[in-house]
Design a protein that fits this description.
Helix content is 0%, strand content 48%. The protein contains no helices and 11 strands. The protein has strands spanning 4-7, 10-13, 18-24, 32-39, 46-51, 58-60, 68-73, 78-83, 92-100, 116-117, 121-126. Strands 2, 4, 5, 6, 9, 10 and 11 form a 7-stranded mixed β-sheet that branches. The radius of gyration is 13 Å and the shape is globular.
Length: 127
């Protein structure tokens, strides 16, 4: 399975921005659909964003639409999550996930769709 390592989390004030990165161990990174999920204390893991293998198709949770942007650089085996206008309710551990397959559209929105996961990175937004 592909190994995933997230980075870029931290403590910021409401309204600030952060960019998360997720580096994959495989040079076949381009055959994977990628996703970002998050889990707040006492809550279930929830979908944030997903991107297909080419980067031309993305999908977002309603709660982050217009504020977060998922992108990928297949030459660097890395997927990103640009988070703008952060809110306290965005506080969570953020995980990236991978699913092998060249899906034409970004339709994978369930954690059950993904087989490989990173260890997570903490994002804390203070009010």
């Amino acid at each position: 399975q592909v190994q995933l390592v997230e980075s870029g989390g931290g403590l910021v004030q409401a309204g600030a921005s952060l960019r998360l990165s997720c580096a994959a161990s495989e040079d076949t990174f381009s055959v994977y659909a990628m996703g970002w999920f998050r889990q707040a204390p006492g809550k279930e893991r929830e979908f944030v964003a997903t991107i297909n293998w080419s980067g031309f198709s993305t999908s977002y949770a309603d709660s982050v639409k217009g504020r977060f942007t998922i992108s990928r650089d297949n030459t660097k085996n890395t997927v990103y999550l640009q988070m703008n206008s952060l809110k306290p309710e965005d506080t969570a551990v953020y995980y990236c996930a991978a699913r092998r397959g060249r899906f034409s559209t970004a339709t994978l929105t369930s954690s059950a769709d993904f087989g490989s996961w990173g260890q997570g990175t903490q994002v804390t937004v203070s009010s």
